[in-house]
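Practice problem 4.
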């Protein structure tokens, strides 16, 4: 039965490969204006998950939209005590938490054992390929750029499956990658992306999504709606993408659209400014991009995850707490805060205030929580 499932899925996805050349044309035309009103817990969230959302307190809902980094490499980490008292949405395991695969798997097992309540946290990583990978003793040894140069979808599929299997063995549920931005020479992402050709990147995005599925790890393509043309690194400071909407729609969005059609369950939102939508607000906080382009235009129903809110592109503009509230308002579902400590506490307090005073509409918070819980359900955590 399992073999037949994957055969059917592979056949269906091969049809998507044949259709990638048409996606650019299908995306052309029309303009995105203000996003539509946000409905209550839609986006394909099944009834049992809706009931679970409604059974959570405001504090529990806010915790569910947080993906938190932490210090430590064992159960003495301060996060362990929090897990016994709170149902945090996700835990981000980074290179500072990892010494080798044996220790990493033990740490993740301890985190899962410490989690209280009925809703366990997602375990999240950002394992890119090549020298930028977070866990140096795990695959993939080759970068996205190398895989893109090879241009072979079967190589990309095996590359993603091997990496996914190693992550799954360690206990990781969700990987923030691959990077499917179209990145020409001179781009800050040139060595981290599959390349600048939308059709090549689309084939790689499709193949890697299949490989992730075979490894039973969720993979979230980054960084929507496509940051590759900027020469600045959003980890370090503000960056601007100057292309027009038409170029984004028929070029930069092609790999994302293919990944969505292939079954991607989550996507990483960019922190760059997109001049065609809002030249002074990061994409992760722009309703026309998240609620408009991603949801209404492309119909994506999975979880929208911000890039790290402690990145330079965010902190250069103002407090992380303000960015977190604005991201949820814009349509994001899960807020990544890699830096541990007080910034996480302050941000949680700000989200609670915003939820209680109506700055964040109850329907919007429920929708975000619903998408996070649906992702967990699909991964077998509920």
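Answer key:
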């Amino acid at each position: 039965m399992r073999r037949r499932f994957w055969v059917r899925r592979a056949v269906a996805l091969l049809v998507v490969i044949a259709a990638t050349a048409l996606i650019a044309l299908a995306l052309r035309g029309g303009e995105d204006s203000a996003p539509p009103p946000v409905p209550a817990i839609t986006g394909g969230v099944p009834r049992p998950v809706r009931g679970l959302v409604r059974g959570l307190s405001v504090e529990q809902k806010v915790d569910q939209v947080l993906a938190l980094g932490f210090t430590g490499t064992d159960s003495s980490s301060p996060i362990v005590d929090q897990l016994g008292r709170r149902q945090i949405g996700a835990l981000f395991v980074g290179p500072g938490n990892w010494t080798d695969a044996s220790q990493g798997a033990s740490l993740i097992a301890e985190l899962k054992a410490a989690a209280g309540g009925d809703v366990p946290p997602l375990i999240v990583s950002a394992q890119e390929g090549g020298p930028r990978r977070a866990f140096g003793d795990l695959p993939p040894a080759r970068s996205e750029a190398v895989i893109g140069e090879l241009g072979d979808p079967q190589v990309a599929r095996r590359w993603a499956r091997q990496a996914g299997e190693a992550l799954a063995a360690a206990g990781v549920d969700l990987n923030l990658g691959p990077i499917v931005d179209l990145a020409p020479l001179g781009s800050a992402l040139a060595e981290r992306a599959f390349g600048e050709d939308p059709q090549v990147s689309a084939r790689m995005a499709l193949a890697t999504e299949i490989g992730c599925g075979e490894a039973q790890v969720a993979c979230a393509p980054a960084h929507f709606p496509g940051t590759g043309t900027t020469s600045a690194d959003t980890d370090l400071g503000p960056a601007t993408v100057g292309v027009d909407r038409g170029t984004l729609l028929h070029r930069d969005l092609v790999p994302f659209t293919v990944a969505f059609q292939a079954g991607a369950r989550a996507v990483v939102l960019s922190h760059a400014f997109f001049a065609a939508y809002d030249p002074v607000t990061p994409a992760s906080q722009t309703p026309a991009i998240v609620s408009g382009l991603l949801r209404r235009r492309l119909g994506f129903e999975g979880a929208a995850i911000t890039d790290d809110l402690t990145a330079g592109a965010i902190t250069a503009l103002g407090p992380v707490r303000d960015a977190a509230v604005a991201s949820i308002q814009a349509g994001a579902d899960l807020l990544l805060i890699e830096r541990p400590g007080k910034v996480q506490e302050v941000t949680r307090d700000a989200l609670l205030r915003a939820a209680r005073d109506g700055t964040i509409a109850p329907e919007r918070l429920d929708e975000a929580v619903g998408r996070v819980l649906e992702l967990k359900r699909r991964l077998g955590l509920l």
